[in-house]
Write a structure and sequence with these properties.
34% of the residues lie in helices and 25% in strands. By secondary structure, it is of the alpha/beta class. The strands form 7 sheets. It has a 9-stranded mixed β-sheet, sandwiched between helices.
Amino acid sequence: MLPASAVDPEIRQQWRENGYWQDISLDQALSHAAKRFADAPLNIHSDVRPAQVTLAELRKRGLVLAGALQKRGIGSGDVVALQLPNWIEAALVYQAAAAIGAVILPIVPIFGEAELGFILRDARARVLFIPGVWRGTDYVERVQRMGETPELRAVVVVAGDLESVAAGGGSPSEFLTWDHFLADSGPYTPNPTNPDAPAFMVYTSGTTANPKGVIHSSNSLLAEVTQSYPEGDDTIRVLSPYPAGHIAGALGVLAHLVAGRPTVLFDVWDPVAAVGYIESQRITSTAGTPYHYLGLLDAAEATNSDLSSLRACGTGGATVPESLVARAERLNIHLFRRYGMSEHPTVTQGDDSDPLDLRMTTDGRARPGVEVRIVDDEGRDVAPGTSGEVATRGPDMFMGYTDPEQTCAAILPGGWYLSGDIGVFDERQCLTIVDRKKDIIIRGGENISSREIEDLMLRIAGVAEAAAVGMPDERLGERVCIYIIVEPDTHVDLLSVQTAFASFGVARQKTPERVIVAQAFPRTAAGKIRKVDLRRTLRQEFAMEKRNNG
């Protein structure tokens, strides 16, 4: 985590004086919201577990779950993990964990046993909530394949029964159904926690092969939520398309739990249903990657839906095509770009009232309380208008990583976070992200480590060298492309690669979608592969294909 001296005390005091840090725990915020916005509905769109519940009811049921957690010895500072879709039970886990002072750890459902096992061990999670079988994946079987997790006390299966769990090889002492877990509950004991203590964790892929554990305090997490949904405007109605398990998905849940906004969540993104909610419930606020908005615009045009209630539509997480912004404009949807990451959820953003040029070509201005610098490789500020690495500091910035060495490597003196992204400021003080220093692929808003893909490729017989890069994609921003050099008399193709990745137990999104067998790689004088050349070739192919298709 960040050392106490990482951020100047004067800066931290300013955050408090300006109201960004309220010095209350996440549970205090949830309790306050449940009283003030008792009737605010949470609508879960799902083919298998649809639900609608008020915030007051969520709070009441969440405290029952809190009692069950405490009865099993889970308490302050313990990590409560959930690999659940956006179901009501996920929101209940948020309520319960916060109530007992535990740390909430959502995990994206696509992570296979390799990533899941690493995360649970690294976080030292004490309890895990999973579905039974969902979208063709047996989550109990996944847990049984993930290896030893010494700190884990119980696995709670939300949609399953003890008989099927036992048949899979687990025992009731290791696996419990949701109903059995709640049946052994009692009154919970409130557990006041320090608002600067860890309250929330999320794991994000980066340049390292393993996911990185990002830690937020109550102060940093609440600073993000309260700025996004300030008090005084009770007309805001939210629709979040993000899946559970990463920071954007968590903020969709917290829009309801903390800010008390009527909210619609999806366990599986459904753009046709989404336009129906926007029209019928007069949704005012949404966000998403280009993938989400393309689906939304297609559905709106196909159904002739009225989206005129929308007034706050942020997008990011991948390259945002200017054509997408222009297309939305024709439907009177004023998209604006925003920039952030798990470590610092919102650094800059535009506004729907900004000129089209600003919204289409920049990532907006720094959010109030947030500072941004553009620095060189030595951490020195570059001249205005010059590109460099983006360094950020603000009240919603994370506390640090679970790995102290990763934290030290990412933080400049004064508490500035080195994002790994390359950006430039214009004369309007608008930031534009122009490149990535980190070697990652962003597919549909999800960060995928190129190094992890390459390490997995080298486990395939006959692969001598591998270089993973993102190839442009109109809907997802990027897809995984792997360049390989193979050993003599060896045949490796897309099918064999996909079969191998399926056997490795990693998320399907990490599986290469194109394999290019090369005779040689472009290299630097030091022998490093020049990925910039590989990316340039793919971008040129993409541009030529677009021209040929009109």
